[in-house]
Amino acid sequence: MTIQLGRRDKKSLILLAGFLAVYSLFQFAIYPVVSKRSKMKSALIDRKRDLVKITGLKTEYQGMKAYSDVSSSEIKNRKNNFTLFSYLEDLSGKANVKESISYMKPSSSTQKNGPYKLSIVEMKLQPVSLEQLINFLYNIETTEKSVSVTKVAISKEKKDGALSCVLQIETIEL
C-alpha cells in the first residue's frame, strides 16, 4: 500500500525531515560538545584557583617549617638545665630591671600530642622607666633561646610617672 502525496505535502514532509535532521544534529552533536567545553572551562578556572591557593599554602608551610626548624635548633642548643625563670632573672639583671621585679609566677603545661612542655612566667615590673622596659622587651624578643612575650599590660603610676607592667613570657621546653 503506497500513499500518494501531493506536491505541497511532499515539501512539508521534506521540510519536517530537514528540521528534524538539524534539530537532531544540534541536540545530539553540537549542544553536548559546547556544554562539555563550557564545563571544562569552568573546571579549569576552578583548578587554577585551587592551584594558586595550594601554592600559597605551600609557601606559608615552607615559611612555618623554616621557622619551626630554627626554633627547634634554638631549643636543642640551649643548656640542659635551662629554665625560663632563671633565664628571665639573668636577663632582668642585664637590662637593669631586676630591682623593679614585684613578682615572678612560673607555670607550665604539657602538650598532649607531643614531647614539648610550654613554660610560662608572669612577671610584674614596678616601677620601671619606658627605656628600661623597651630594653628588657627587646632583649627577650631578640634572644636566640626561642623565648617570646605573649602578653603585656602597661599602666602609668600616679606618683613619679613611672610605669607598672605585667608581662607574660613563654617558651617551649623539651
Topology, please?
Blueprint: H1 7-77, H2 84-94, E1 101-110, E2 117-128, H3 130-141, E3 147-156, E4 163-173
Antiparallel strand pairs: 1-2, 2-4, 3-4
Give a nutshell description of this structure:
The protein is built from three helices and four strands; from the N terminus they run H-H-E-E-H-E-E. The chain has helices at residues 7-77, 84-94, 130-141; strands spanning 101-110, 117-128, 147-156, 163-173.
Provide a descriptive summary of the structure in words.
By secondary structure, the protein is α+β, with helices and mostly antiparallel strands. It has 2 domains: 7-77; 84-173, Alpha-Beta Plaits, CATH 3.30.70.60. The chain is built from 3 helices and 4 strands, in the order H-H-E-E-H-E-E. It has helices at 7-77, 84-94, 130-141, and strands spanning 101-110, 117-128, 147-156, 163-173. It has a 4-stranded antiparallel β-sheet. The longest helix is centred in the first third of the chain and has 71 residues, at 7-77. The model has no long low-confidence stretch (mean pLDDT 88).
CATH superfamily of the largest domain: Ribosomal protein S6/Translation elongation factor EF1B
Shape: rod-shaped
Which range best describes the helical content: under 10%, 10-25%, 25-40%, 40-55%, 55-70% or over 70%?
40-55%
The beta-strand count equals: 4
Query: How many domains make up the 3D coordinates?
Result: 2
**CATH T-level topology of the largest domain:** Alpha-Beta Plaits
CATH class of the largest domain equals: Alpha Beta
CA-CA gap between termini: 100 Å
Q: Please, what is the average pLDDT?
A: 88
Structural class: alpha+beta
The biggest sheet amounts to: 4 strands, antiparallel
What ranges have pLDDT less than 50 throughout 5 or more consecutive residues? none
Succession of helices and strands = HHEEHEE
Output the strand order for the largest sheet.
1-2-4-3
Task: Give Rg in angstroms.
Answer: 37 Å
Query: Beta-sheet strand percentage?
Result: 15-25%
CATH architecture of the largest domain: 2-Layer Sandwich
Query: How many alpha or pi helices?
Result: 3
